[in-house]
Each structure stands twice: as structure tokens, then as C-alpha cells.
């Protein structure tokens, strides 16, 4: 006898409908969506089946379903859907649900999941935390920079480590990153196990990972599915590489700071890495790397934002609070980051630059801390799902 | 009915619904004016090869109706005519009927001498443009009235003159003009029928883009003995019989981007057409891709009968994309029951398109009560009743039943109710 699926929780379904999944109820399972999808694997097509599971409220089955993440939301399906279900939006809402259900600890998942109400806490909390921390430590007074350099045209008019010592940034951000890694390890292994229970993986993890990283680096999946909104693909491409560039430049900056200590001194013997002291002049290649990344971030960020303004376009889809929070957070990080740099060169009064800098540190911390629970988590779950798919299809 | 002289009834459209309504009203004792836009009566049913589920040709039913028409003195039939103005007068309507120029008069004996003299060819409207015909011709084998039609705009004056001179009874008048008449009627039966949803709108399904992707209405013509292929089902691109035929259900139906409703006949039409294919080409593989198999009532038996045929397969899943693939056609669809994406090959693809009500873009006052999709609603307070597909999508049998009801309501409305 066939088993009859039981609606696991009508509350969850109501919650799903509230978070942008409402149109799932209109679906009559014609499967046009799956047949027009460029990314759906032949032996596990999506999104028709996922919409059916959502209609039934079977989110437990969707938690370990890689299809939820294999979708890159090109919205080809939403354009063709005969019932205006917007399957692309349903998949996006499912990802939000799944991120919350997989979250560890669950309470933090709910906190970010309810971002429509909790966003002020999530943004202002980290900013106030930084303000308080600075108040306690340096008391907003200027501290002696350890290099004692003078400001100049290529150096800017003041240095931010006069307000916030690097050690303080390491202490906070390394702790935040450590926390994020820890919780992702917990949710990630749950997710990985759930996917493995459904489908046996055969291929090599490392080989698949290399393939996935290449796919992501070149945005291959985006390229194969994107038909209508190239600004989304290229906007995402630029923002992603902008963040990568900024991270690499920050890494080098730290290395430059500490490479004069004995175990690392061999570093300055490398070509291009001669000790130039601190602060690094804006003409240095690492500053070029950072500033090119900033340009990518600004242009890409504007493209993604402009894309969201095209309301009512089926190729763009809806924007939920979950989307809006992440997009605004990323845009705030980009904007405050660029303004922090500009202020140092263009505004004589250090208090302006310092104020922007504190906000910047706050939104960066918010971005880090919410990563496992916000839309940012796609970087993690989607990558894992893509690796899983490669390992099952080889 | 009072002893006062009652106004006649106007029936707009002489398809199966309009003809039936006119006959029923006339046989109840009403005077009827039956107005048809085409040169001959019969409408869409005469383009159908066989009815489902009995698989008999529609021509015999129309023959009986034609005989009833001919014998009934209360019906006046105006072909090549349409209502160009309508005004509410008292309990009824004042309407202006404009008749297209009678390039061929009633004197025509259908001898065919004019056709022999004519060189110009035009796409054949009866065969939905699948072949060409002479600019002067009999509309089709069973045309009633049996009179030639002349596509005057298609030929030059010199040729028109030659054609006129070829007529032994002087029935061709190349300089005829349109005429119009204004009459008062007591009630109106709207039976304006339907037209097929254009497959050119279904570009993603290859409509108008791939030769071997045709509509269900084309399939009826291919299977008809008096159709463009003499009744042989052949691929338009190659002229060869297909080995694999695919039916794509809900092509532009139940779809917010096209027709947002179910026409209710396409599933049965495709099943019926599957029998055409299997009868002619027993080796052919027939696959029908569907969302739901909508075969209500006794038609369920027909579904089961066709589904049991050897080489007939029904797959749940709507076809999303169709593309050319060398000499054949490739269909992209999810096999929902097996949760698999398939890329199916076919030689001939039939898009099961739905019915668009002709009244959708008609703005005469008679048609003011319409639903969102353009189907006309009864308005008894204005003495307007609706029959057949003008009212809702339905099959021939339902149209006929519907027409009887519409005729009865119109007779009552025309007689005046207290």
C-alpha cells in the first residue's frame, strides 16, 4: 500500500507562505518549469517536485534536497509558468526556509529568519558593540601609531589604527569567523549527511570540489541558465570577485604588518614584497588590488540593486525581507568601506572618517555573524550541493 | 405566444449551434433570420474529419440539418453577411446586416467553367491555408448554398473579366457591391463560435517555426478525405508518413500567458486523432503528453479504449520546449510519474490548442455581456441568448443541446414575458 504523506506542520506551511512561498498553492503540477530548466539533472528534475513538497508542508524532505540549491534562479520557469506560481521565487523562499531549519543553534536561525522584524537588532547590535568596545578600550581618543609615520598625500590625512588598533580587529573578527566556521561545520555536516542518505556519492570529494570551484569562479551555471537578466549574472560575478579581491588584499596587508618578525622575515625577500612599512601608500600594488576590488564591488552592487528595482518583471522575481536584508547589508559594507577610504583622503575632520569606520566595522561584523543564517549561507550550502551533485553524477 | 405578429428571431452564426438554434426556433413557429459571415454554412464542424467518441463524420449531421433548413419556410439565411450595427429598440433589437458583394449570384449552377478560366490561386481557407485553391471556387464539397465564391481582390480586372465571360449563365459579376438591410428582431441568439488559438503564439513549442509542428485543427484536415493530402497523414516538411507522432496537450491552454482556461475538448480530440494515426499507420508510435486527462462522463471509456491501443502511450507532463533536431523534432518534458526529464523525438508534433471565442474582439452592443475571456453571456433582459462555443468551450454534442436551450429562451424573450 502506498504511504500517504502527512503534512508535517501546517504552521511551517503558513510560515512558508508568509515568507514569499504563497504562490506555491496555485501550482497544478504541469512540470513546464522542470522541462524548461537548464540546470535540472535528468534523473532528479526540479522545481516541480519541490513545489509539491512545499504544498504538502514536507520541509524535512526539502532540507536535504540538493535541488533546492542547484537552482540559480534565472527565472526561466517563472516566465513560462502557466499559473504564475513563479517557481523561481518558490525555490528562493525554500532556500530561506531550509537555511533556518538547518541552522545551528536554531534560535539564531529563527532570529535571522524573522529578519523582517529583527533587522534593526541584527544591524545596530554589531555597530553599537563596536562603539562600546572602542569606548572601553581607546575611549575614542587617538592612540600612538606604532610606526609613527606622518600623514601625506599618498597616505591620507589620518590613520584608522589610531582609533581602532589592529589587535582589536583581529580579536573581534577572528572570533566571529571562528564562530561561523564552527556553526557551519555543525549545519554543514547535517546537510551533507541528509544529502548522502538520499543519494549515494561515488566520485572523489576533492576532484568534485575543484570542479565546483571552477564552475563558481567562472559562473558557469549562471551562464548556462541566464537568458533574461545578464545584469544579475555580471553583478553577482563582480561582487563575488570584489569580495575575493578585498579579502586577498586584506590578507596581504596583515602579512606586510607582521612579516618583519623573525619566523616570517623570509617573506620580504620575495620579489614585489619588499618591506615598505606601514601605512602602505596608495600607490602600492596591494592598494591597487584593493581599489580595483572596490570598483568591482561598487559596480556589481549597483547592478544587483538596480535589478531588484524592476518590479513586476517575471525574470527578476520578488524580493523578500530575507533577500533585502542580505542585499542591503552587502551594499552597506561596500558603501561604508569605500567612504571610509575616501574620508581619509578627502575630509580633513577625522571624526567623519572615524564615524563611518565604526559603522563599517559594525556592518562587516553583522555580515560575518549572520552568514550561516542569512541569504549569505548560499555560498556554503549551494557549494556543498554542487559538490554532492558532481559526486553522485560521476 | 400572443396573436400579435411577433418580431423575427436573429441568429448570428450558422455553425452547428446557430443552425440548430435557427431550426429549433423555426420549428417552434418563429420567423428566423440566420446570418453567416462565411459564404456557406456549417462552420467549424465541417473542417472536422470525425467526431469523438463515435468517430463518425460531421457531414452527415450537417446534411440532415441542411435538409431541415431547405424545407423550413420560416428561416431566411443570409451568407457572406455580418451584423454591422445593432441598437436596442423596445424589447428587441434593430440591426443592420451587411452582405459582402455578390460576385457570384444565385444563378450559379456550380458547373465549374469559371474555375477552369481562373489562373490565380489563394490559400484555401477551408483547409486552414494548408493548400491553395483557385480564386473562384466552390468553398468545399458539401458547401451550402452550393454556389461558387470569388476572391475578387486576389485577381486583376482582366482576369476577372475572362472569368465572368466563361460563365455560361452570367452568374459572375466582378463589379458587384456590398448591400445592407436594416431589420427589427424580437430576440437574438449569439452563435458566433470560435477560432483556433494561433500556434504562432506558441513559439517556444515551435508553433509557426517548425514545419512539422502543427495544430490539432490541421490534423483534422490532414486526416480528411477531402483535405489537402486526400486524407493521408503526412509530415509537412517531407511529405512522408510519420513514424512517431507526439500530441502536446494544453498547448496555450490553462495558461495565464495564453488562454487562461481549459477548452474541454482537446484531450478527446487528441485521443481521437491518435486513432486516425493508428488506423493509417499501425506501426507508428503515438505519445500524448498531458497535465490532466480531461475526458468527463462517458468519454472516460473512449480514453481507456485509445490508451489500450498498441503503440499509444500517455505521459504525464507538459511539454515545455520544442526544437528542431536534424530531420525530426525534439520535445523537452518531465515524465512526472517517473520524475525524469525526457528529450523525446518525434516526426510530427500536434499542438492541442484551445478555442478562442470569435466574440472576444466584437464590440457590438449585443455582445456587451462577456466574461473576462470573451465568452458571451445570456442577457434575457436584453433578449440575447447564447449558444455553442460563443457561450463556453464545449464539444459538438453539447453545442447542439445548448442551441436548443438558447432557441427556447430566445423564443420566450421574443414573445415578450409578463
Question: Any overview of this molecule?
Answer:
The complex is a heterodimer of chains A (394) and B (418). Chain A is an all-alpha fold and 394 residues long. Chain A folds into 2 domains: 10-103, no CATH class; 107-393, no CATH class. Helix content of chain A is 65%, strand content 0%. The longest helix of chain A has 33 residues, at 166-198. The two termini of chain A are 34 Å apart. With 418 residues, chain B is an alpha/beta fold. Chain B folds into 3 domains: 9-100 and 178-195 and 356-415, FAD/NAD(P)-binding domain (3-Layer(bba) Sandwich); 113-166, no CATH class; 198-353, 3-Layer(bba) Sandwich (FAD/NAD(P)-binding domain), CATH 3.50.50. Helices cover 22% and strands 25% of the residues of chain B. In chain B, strands 3-2-1-11-22 form a 5-stranded parallel sheet, covered by helices on one side. The A-B interface holds A 28-36, 40-45, 48-49, 80-84 and B 204, 250, 254-258, 291-292, 316-321, 332-334, 336, 339-342.
* CATH homologous superfamily grouping of the largest domain in chain B: FAD/NAD(P)-binding domain
Low-confidence stretches of chain A: none
The average pLDDT value of chain A, as a whole number, equals 89
The largest sheet of chain A, given as strand count, sense and whether it forms a barrel, is:
none
Major sheet summary line of chain B: 5 strands, parallel
Outline of chain B: globular
Identify the strand order in the major beta sheet of chain B: 3-2-1-11-22
N→C terminal distance of chain A: 34 Å
Number of domains of chain B: 3
* Helix-strand makeup class of chain A: mainly alpha
Structural class of chain B: alpha/beta
Largest interface, per-chain counts? Answer: A-B, 22 and 23 residues
Provide the succession of SSEs of chain A.
HHHHHHHHHHHHHHHHH
Strand content of chain A: under 5%
Amino acid at each position: 500500500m502506498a504511504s500517504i504523506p502527512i503534512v508535517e506542520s501546517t504552521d511551517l506551511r503558513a510560515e512558508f507562505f508568509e515568507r514569499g512561498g504563497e504562490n506555491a498553492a496555485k501550482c497544478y503540477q504541469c512540470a513546464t518549469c522542470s522541462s524548461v530548466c537548464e540546470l535540472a539533472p535528468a534523473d532528479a528534475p526540479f522545481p516541480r517536485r519541490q513545489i509539491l513538497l512545499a504544498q504538502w508542508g514536507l520541509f524535512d524532505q526539502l532540507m536535504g534536497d540538493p535541488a533546492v540549491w542547484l537552482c540559480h534562479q534565472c527565472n526561466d520557469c517563472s516566465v513560462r509558468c502557466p499559473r504564475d506560481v513563479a517557481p523561481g521565487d518558490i525555490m528562493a523562499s525554500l532556500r530561506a526556509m531550509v537555511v533556518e531549519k538547518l541552522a545551528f543553534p536554531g534560535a539564531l536561525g529563527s532570529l535571522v529568519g524573522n529578519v523582517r522584524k529583527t533587522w534593526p537588532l541584527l544591524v545596530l547590535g554589531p555597530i553599537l558593540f563596536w562603539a562600546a568596545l572602542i569606548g572601553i578600550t581607546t575611549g575614542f581618543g587617538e592612540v600612538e601609531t606604532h610606526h609613527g609615520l606622518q600623514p601625506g598625500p599618498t597616505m591620507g590625512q589620518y590613520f584608522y589604527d589610531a582609533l581602532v588598533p589592529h589587535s582589536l580587529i583581529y580579536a573581534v573578527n577572528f572570533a566571529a569567523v571562528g564562530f561561523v566556521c564552527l556553526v557551519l561545520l555543525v549545519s554543514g555536516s547535517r546537510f551533507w549527511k541528509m544529502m548522502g542518505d538520499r543519494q549515494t556519492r561515488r566520485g572523489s570529494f576533492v576532484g568534485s570540489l575543484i570542479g565546483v570551484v571552477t564552475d563558481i569562479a567562472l559562473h558557469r551555471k549562471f551562464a548556462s541558465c541566464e537568458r533574461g537578466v545578464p545584469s544579475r549574472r555580471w553583478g553577482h560575478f563582480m561582487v563575488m570577485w570584489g569580495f575575493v579581491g578585498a579579502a586577498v588584499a586584506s590578507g596581504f596587508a596583515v602579512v606586510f604588518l607582521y612579516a618583519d618578525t623573525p619566523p616570517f622575515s623570509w617573506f620580504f625577500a620575495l620579489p614585489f614584497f619588499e618591506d615598505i612599512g606601514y601605512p602602505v601608500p596608495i600607490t602600492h600594488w596591494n592598494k591597487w588590488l584593493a581599489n580595483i576590488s572596490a570598483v568591482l564591488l561598487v559596480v556589481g552592487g549597483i547592478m544587483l540593486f538596480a535589478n531588484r528595482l524592476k518590479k513586476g518583471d517575471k525574470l527578476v522575481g520578488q524580493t523578500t525581507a530575507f533577500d533585502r536584508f542580505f542585499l542591503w547589508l552587502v551594499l552597506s559594507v561596500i558603501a561604508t568601506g569605500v567612504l571610509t577610504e575616501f574620508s581619509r583622503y578627502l575630509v580633513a575632520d577625522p571624526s567623519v572618517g572615524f564615524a563611518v569606520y565604526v559603522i563599517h566595522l559594525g556592518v562587516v561584523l553583522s555580515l560575518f555573524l549572520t552568514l550561516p543564517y542569512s541569504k549569505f549561507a548560499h555560498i556554503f550550502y549551494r557549494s556543498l550541493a554542487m559538490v554532492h551533485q558532481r559526486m553522485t553524477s560521476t | 405566444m400572443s396573436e400579435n405578429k411577433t418580431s423575427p428571431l436573429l441568429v448570428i452564426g450558422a455553425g452547428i449551434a446557430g443552425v440548430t438554434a435557427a431550426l429549433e426556433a423555426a420549428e417552434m413557429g418563429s420567423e428566423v433570420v440566420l446570418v453567416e459571415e462565411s459564404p456557406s454554412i456549417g462552420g467549424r464542424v465541417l473542417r472536422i474529419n470525425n467526431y469523438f467518441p463515435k468517430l463518425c463524420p460531421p457531414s452527415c449531421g450537417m446534411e440532415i440539418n441542411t435538409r431541415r433548413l431547405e424545407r423550413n419556410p420560416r428561416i431566411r439565411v443570409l451568407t457572406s453577411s455580418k451584423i454591422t450595427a445593432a441598437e436596442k429598440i423596445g424589447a428587441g433589437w434593430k440591426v443592420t446586416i451587411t452582405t459582402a458583394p455578390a460576385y457570384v449570384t444565385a444563378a450559379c449552377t456550380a458547373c465549374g467553367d469559371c474555375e477552369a478560366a481562373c489562373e490565380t490561386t489563394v490559400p484555401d481557407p477551408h483547409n486552414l491555408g494548408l493548400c491553395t485553391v483557385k480564386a473562384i471556387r466552390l468553398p468545399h464539397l458539401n458547401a451550402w448554398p452550393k454556389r461558387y465564391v470569388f476572391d475578387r481582390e486576389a485577381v486583376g480586372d482582366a482576369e476577372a473579366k475572362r472569368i465572368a465571360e466563361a460563365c455560361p449563365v452570367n452568374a459572375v459579376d466582378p463589379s458587384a457591391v456590398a448591400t445592407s438591410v436594416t431589420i427589427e428582431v424580437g430576440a437574438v441568439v449569439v452563435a458566433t463560435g470560435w477560432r483556433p488559438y494561433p500556434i504562432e503564439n506558441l513559439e517556444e513549442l515551435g508553433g509557426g517555426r517548425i514545419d512539422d509542428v502543427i495544430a490539432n485543427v490541421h490534423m483534422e484536415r490532414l486526416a480528411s478525405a477531402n483535405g489537402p493530402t486526400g486524407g493521408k497523414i503526412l509530415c509537412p516538411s517531407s511529405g512522408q508518413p510519420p513514424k512517431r507522432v507526439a500530441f502536446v496537450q494544453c498547448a496555450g491552454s490553462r495558461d495565464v500567458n495564453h488562454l487562461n482556461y481549459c477548452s474541454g475538448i482537446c484531450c478527446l480530440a487528441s485521443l481521437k486523432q491518435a486513432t486516425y494515426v493508428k488506423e493509417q499507420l499501425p506501426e507508428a508510435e503515438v505519445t500524448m503528453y498531458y497535465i490532466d486527462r480531461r475526458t468527463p462522463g462517458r468519454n472516460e471509456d473512449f480514453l481507456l479504449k485509445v490508451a489500450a491501443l498498441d503503440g499509444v502511450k500517455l505521459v504525464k507532463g507538459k511539454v515545455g520546449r520544442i526544437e528542431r533536431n536534424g530531420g525530426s523534432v525534439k520535445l523537452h518534458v518531465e515524465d512526472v510519474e517517473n520524475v525524469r526529464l525526457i528529450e523525446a523525438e518525434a516526426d510530427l508534433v500536434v499542438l492541442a490548442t484551445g478555442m478562442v471565442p470569435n466574440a472576444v474582439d466584437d464590440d457590438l452592443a449585443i455582445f456587451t455581456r462577456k466574461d473576462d475571456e470573451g465568452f458571451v453571456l445570456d442577457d434575457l433582459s436584453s433578449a440575447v441568448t447564447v449558444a455553442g462555443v460563443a457561450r463556453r468551450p464545449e464539444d459538438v454534442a453539447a453545442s447542439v443541446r445548448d442551441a436548443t436551450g438558447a432557441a427556447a429562451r430566445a423564443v420566450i424573450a421574443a414573445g415578450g414575458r409578463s
